[in-house]
Amino acid sequence: MYKFLLLLYVTLSCGAESVKIITYNVLYGFNHGKNIQEGQAWLKAQQADFIALQEMKGFDANKFAQLAKTWGHEHSYFYKRPHGMPLAFSSRFPISEVEELHKGVKRGFLKLKCRGIDFIVLHMTSQRLSARRQELNYISPTISELLKKKGKVIVLGDFNSLSPRDMKHLSELDDLLEEMRNTPRKKPNLNDNNFDIGIMTAFEDLGLVELCHQQLQGQKDLQGSFPSTLLEKIPNKEIQEKYLRRIDFILSDAISAKNLSQAAIPKEGDLEKISDHYPIIIELNN
Fold first, then answer.
1. How far apart (Å, rounded) are the C-alpha atoms in residues 161 and 191?
2. Which residue in 91, 113, 130, 184 has its CB near the most CB atoms, within 10 A?
């Protein structure tokens, strides 16, 4: 009887566990390698189960594996993309079914499986909307196939794209829009001279759910994941408000989205010097 009750307790406890997931663009390897210690300490303090990092310049597979162990992750994968900066993923649990997907696109995608979840880690092109459209068209069939299997799917990273759910906030960013219209290298990111929301709309049309908006809508934290005050052009919070927008996201299948328990876009403290982006954190109940 005691053994039965113990087994029942363990089963119920495991079923009640949640998983914590972080995505973070860390600016050329934690601010060009200058703030690795702060980045490591912050990630360790989060006690996340899965961490996806973008712009891991200055690292290789071994160096990243050693770093991941300092925040308690014995399992990791480092993807040195043919074009664009490296992607990295670490986990408390074994990683399997790894694929580096990059045929015919400038910025490759990292696909892997971990604890029953299919992950796709991405960092889409920042310079041109046309390149992001090409990348979207490339990865969409893979995502659709995963969703058809009715399993758990997470797509996360730096999309360099704007959400249709942020239209009210975006309508207030007149300075940003004017800057993009008048800067030759930024103008190719616009759609008919206005902010583009088509990329994120298309991801949602595949059947994915954008998790932070689901949890945080109406809250000030939802306003943005980029830029932090690390950038020289963003010396204070007042200036930041004119440019702050969301370009980093965690998306999931619809069933997993129903199990969302927490979401955050933390700011302040060391996060203002680790990167020009802020991390995205979500928790899902199993």
1. 11
2. 91
Q: At what angle do helices 61-70 and 36-46 cross, to 10 degrees?
A: 50
Query: Is residue 10 pLDDT above 50, yes or no?
Result: no
Which CATH number belongs to the domain containing residue 201 in this structure?
3.60.10.10
- Considering the domain boundaries, does residue 184 fall inside one? yes
Q: Is the peptide bond before 184 cis (omega within 30 degrees of 0)?
A: no
Residue labelled with tokens 């113990």: 6
Residue 196 lies in a domain: yes
Number of separate domains in the chain: 1
pTM value? 0.93
What is the maximum span of the chain, computed from C-alpha positions, in angstroms?
A: 74
**Which range marks the domain in which residue 104 is found?**
20-285
Six-digit token pair at 193?
Answer: 């001279």
Structure token digits, residue 277: 């982006």
Packing angle of the helix pair 198-205, 129-148 (nearest 10 deg): 10
Q: What is the pLDDT of residues 234-247, one digit of tens each?
A: 999 999 999 999 99
The DSSP string of 90-143 is EESS-EEEEEEE-TT-SS-EEEEEETTEEEEEEE--SS-HHHHHHHHHHHHHHH
Please report where in the chains the tokens 């162990």 appear, as a residue: 69
**Distances 106 to 68, 89, 139, 141, 217 between C-alpha atoms, Å:** 27, 20, 12, 17, 33
In a domain, 4, yes or no: no
Q: Which residue in this structure is represented by tokens 């942020």?
A: 166
DSSP letter at 71 equals T
